[in-house]
């Protein structure tokens, strides 16, 4: 062994499910320095190891569970794990982050990453306990809900606290929007659960007893102290703590940021009533997704009685509740909470599920889905009874649910009859609950995000335009958001490039992004990372890593055939809303999306026609040209 | 003149001691939304959107007697 790699375990596990071969591999420190971890390291591995055009649900796909040096419970936001894979929903680059102790526990077991390959003949789950790696039979877990599976695995291992990530029945049935969950938290988007299901991998349990060596412990202590202080003194972090993400419903509705009735509008006017009901009658307490989180934005909710009675559970987040209220015009909060709970038990993504139901309701309105296709089910807009039933049908691939389980893009292609217009997605990923008509930077981030129209990467655009957050990056060239109007289009392409490079750092470091909204910036991360690793890393280097990773993921997608034509924003999303308080506000419509995209490509050093990174740009980023 | 002001989430505290129990506040005539925000000491750097009588208004908008103003903070997470 050479010099120890401070901050990292320096090792990864490679588990081949076909022959049950487990290999411990050393990781090249040069690769770590260049890609750091999380989505960066995952992108490097998948780009190098996946062949072009593989079917994502074949044994050729791989799952990378990746951490970083900051995957420690004592780092603000350190309790996360990043799962990287080729998406069966989009056929593009994908990743999905989950707030959980799984990441820090994997580090404690002595691994920076786990690579899962091939496919098991029968259902299995993996147990990682330091050097002991077991692949155990899981046929008896098949068909069980997520919480049942986690409970049974913990009982079998006689360890009530071991971190477990597993799939639900939907993942086993290869539903393209299936998730993997760790307790109440999901690696939710792009179908990670379906990839696990295709490998007959029901779950992974992990625990460890080791501590990663720290290069400069005193410096780390000081950097963490500074970061914790910044979070404690931050008003937005305090807001997240008190109101969770759900508290965003009222501002989003008011700002024209709340996609309503499948994006026919960006405003509904009912968020205040819904949020007040939630806060006063359904909310039990807040909850931290990992041990030690100083914000604990998670919500624990319950519906005590009635036809949508729902046990105490963690869920009912902003995105989930928006998907089952505004998306589908449902103001029955009990039904919305119940539907999100069922998603978490069957194991499907709440955002995509709500978006798919909105799509189905519009199909029903226009006769694309007919009564004969759905039996007794009434898919009229706002019908609360349709929500839990459609969640079940999609999760179990029953009836109309079998087509809808493919996601709106494929479902619209199968259903035809003009339903493509109702399929609101980017690169095949269903759009989340923020609306680009609230601010134009969001249009560019939605269109260009490597995993499609997701609720993580693009949001820096909205936070910049409307939230006026600069993320400490004005000194790195970001125009001051207070000098920019949210509906300006010129200049947004330039700003988005810097925003993306800076904000992807939270995913490269596999940590919670909310802390970047709540007081931390790339300088804090550079300080903590430098102390952990002994490397002298500054904000500029982190931005360069962010740019490198963004470009590498772009190259992954281009290899799969994606290009400028896929950096789209659906027409409906660009148009002035058809109802609501912004219906006469011409400034909110997106006037020249292509011009914004041109500005963005020019700033990125990408070809204006193909969207491909230039040779000079790749050379600058030390990325080989493919 | 008097206007009604509703503040949400992280802005709520800025109304304490300034708004009465019905959320009303007396302000000079011809005040703009920007003036009202300054009067309430809501930090300029925090993103916000204002509705007056249910309609979105720019901060240059001049308030009138009896207006109902909602000021919401915009964060962008969630």
Question: Overview of this structure, please?
Answer:
The complex is a heterodimer of chains A (626) and B (78). Chain A is of the alpha+beta class. Chain A has 3 domains: 11-207, Aldehyde Ferredoxin Oxidoreductase,  A, domain 1, CATH 3.60.9; 244-425, Aldehyde Ferredoxin Oxidoreductase Protein, subunit A, domain 2 (Orthogonal Bundle), CATH 1.10.569.10; 436-620, Aldehyde Ferredoxin Oxidoreductase Protein, subunit A, domain 3. Chain A is built from 27 helices and 17 strands. In chain A, the strands form 4 sheets. A 6-stranded mixed beta sheet of chain A has the order 2-1-6-3-4-5. In chain A, strands 8-7-12-9-10-11 form a 6-stranded mixed beta sheet, sandwiched between helices. The relative contact order of chain A is 0.12. The mean pLDDT of chain A is 96. Chain B has a single domain (2-73), classed as Ubiquitin-like (UB roll) (Roll), CATH 3.10.20.30. Chain B has 1 helix and 5 strands; from the N terminus they run ββαβββ. In chain B, strand 3 and strand 4 form a beta hairpin. Chain B is globular and about 35 Å long. The N and C termini of chain B lie far apart (38 Å). In chain B, 33% of the residues are buried. The mean pLDDT of chain B is 94. The chains are: A alpha+beta (626), B mainly beta (78). Chains A and B meet through helix 8, helix 9 and helix 19 of A and strand 5 of B.
